[in-house]
Specification:
234 residues; binds ligand LXAUTJHC; six-stranded parallel β-sheet; 6-phosphogluconolactonase_DevB; 6-phosphogluconolactonase activity; EC 3.1.1.31; 7 helices
Length: 234
Amino acid sequence: MTTEVWPTAEELAAVIAQRITDKVAEVQREGRTPTIVLTGGTIAIDAYEQISGGDVDWTDVDFYWGDERFVPAGDADRNDRQAKDAFLDRLGVPADRIHAMPAADGGLAIGEAADRYAAELPGEPFDLVLLGVGPDGHIASLFPGHPQVHETKRLAVEVLDSPKPPPERISLTYPALRNAQSVWLIVAGEGKAEAVARAHADGTIEDTPASGVQGLAETVWLVDVPASALIVRR
Ligand SMILES: O=C1O[C@H](COP(=O)(O)O)[C@@H](O)[C@H](O)[C@H]1O
């Protein structure tokens, strides 16, 4: 695990945007179609807005999500809608490359929707999983003290009582999130400092779900100074 600290959230967002572009370029140079799991959250959206294109083919990237709010398609609360608005539409990513989680108005009960999404995931490891971290240490929609952190078989699960609204969500589980070459945890702001510090020290998946995900090749924390403030002092 490595941790890189950037002075401000603005600089961090710019770095994340460039790193995503570089990752896509790297995988495409290998002759493969990149598979990227997107996250929601403040710093992620700021980063997506700064992705400017670069020397890559954005029409040949498969995008998935680590979690989604189970609300109707197009709802402003949905992580897919926010990512589309921030960069996917602007860069011309075709609809068949956007693997959104089912929506609440899609005709499936939430548990069926989670299973349907699990069946849509690629068999090979993802190239990149991006994860925001909540002030409570949650990643995707795996929340402290919630049973989903102990899921070992299903790749996607329903969450009916998220402590952060909206209550109904779908989340990838650890078995899915860990099946990635690169996992990058992206975090900004002093409100996340306690969670970041726990994940770097004695945190468990019970109290700090962010401590429980590692990539097959790398696990990188990209944080700003306020979010990193408690790492070394504990
Ligand atoms: O609800 C969610 O929150 C987290 C973190 O969001 P933030 O605004 O505190 O940065 C995000 O990672 C997750 O995808 C999202 O559904």
